[in-house]
Amino acid sequence: MDPREWQRTANGQAFLVSTAQDVLPIEFVQEALDNPAVFWAKSSSVANTKTMLDNSCTLGLFKVQDGTHTPIGMARMVTDYVTLAYLTDVYVLEEYRAFGLGKWLISCCREIVQDMPHLRWMLLMTGNAQAERFYQRELGMEVMGTRADEHVVAMGARKAHIETAGAAGASHASRA
Ligand SMILES: CC(C)(COP(=O)(O)OP(=O)(O)OC[C@H]1O[C@@H](n2cnc3c(N)ncnc32)[C@H](O)[C@@H]1OP(=O)(O)O)[C@@H](O)C(=O)NCCC(=O)NCCS
User: Fold this and answer.
1) Helix (H) or strand (E) holding 6
2) 35 secondary structure, DSSP code
3) Closest CA to 88 of 32, 37, 126
4) Residue 50 C-alpha to ligand 1 middle, in angstroms?
5) pLDDT digits (tens, 9 = 90+) for 12-71
6) How far is CA 125 from CA 45, 77, 137, 166, in A?
7) Closest by alpha carbon to 79, among 158, 1, 144?
8) What residue's CA is closest to ligand 1, atom 24?
9) 99 lines ligand 1 (CB under 6 A)
10) What is the value of pTM for the model shown?
11) What whole-number percentage of the chain has pLDDT above 90?
12) pLDDT tens digits, residue range 122-140?
């Protein structure tokens, strides 16, 4: 898949989302996976993390300042780019939260899956009621199953539901 990019400003700062491979530093991903807020994950070796990223559509979120790109967030979809996308590891550094960047990352994911020609399901798992409402609103996700013992909910959406979800979408972003 050709890499895609989106740009926007938020809170008076410039940001970029990019799916280009090898742009998001492995160290950033490992730190994100070890952050207590990312309670479902745990980092592995550099080699395993590289394999994980090589086999995912990874969206890196960067702050852009004076020509430099500083990684501040990510989301990742495990996908065949045709029929299925599993969304995971959605993360924004704490100091950049509540600027609308998480919503923007998800709207970029929505654009990517909307271009998949025969998407059957977009899937995710979450253990957080706030996240459940968020994905319902932004991606048209519905709860498909619950593992009460692990406090985990599986959610999914068909293409038609994804298309009608998200009030503003990525419309305020420009595709580079
Ligand atoms: C979830 C997260 C990516 C949101 O990033 P953000 O840049 O603050 O998001 P936005 O500013 O675009 O706000 C979008 C929504 O995030 C939701 N949100 C806030 N904290 C959240 C959390 N811990 N889990 C899920 N959603 C959360 C809010 O409901 C908000 O919705 P609103 O528009 O009704 O206010 C960020 O809080 C984060 O990295 N949390 C830790 C990791 C995590 O919980 N990831 C998602 C797990 S499924």
Assistant:
1) strand 5-10
2) S
3) 126
4) 26
5) 999 999 999 989 999 999 999 999 999 999 999 999 999 999 999 999 999 999 999 999
6) 24, 12, 15, 19
7) 1
8) 131
9) yes
10) 0.93
11) 88
12) 999 999 899 999 999 999 9
Residues with Cβ within 8 Å of 115's Cβ and at least 6 positions away in sequence, in order, are none
Distances in Å between the alpha carbon of 44 and those of 30, 33, 47, 48, 135? 7, 9, 8, 6, 27
The token duo for 150 is: 């692990």
d(CA 69, CA 64): 5
Give 34's DSSP letter: H
CA distances for 42 relative to 8, 36, 45, 158, 160, angstroms: 30, 9, 10, 29, 33
With a 6 Å cutoff on the Cβ, whether 98 touches ligand 1 is yes
Domain ranges of the chain: 5-167
Give the residue, by CA position, lying nearest to ligand 1 atom 5.
102
AA identity, residue 64? V
DSSP 49-70: HHHHHHTSEEEEEEEEETTEEE
Q: Assign domain 5-167 to its CATH architecture.
A: 3-Layer(aba) Sandwich (3.40)
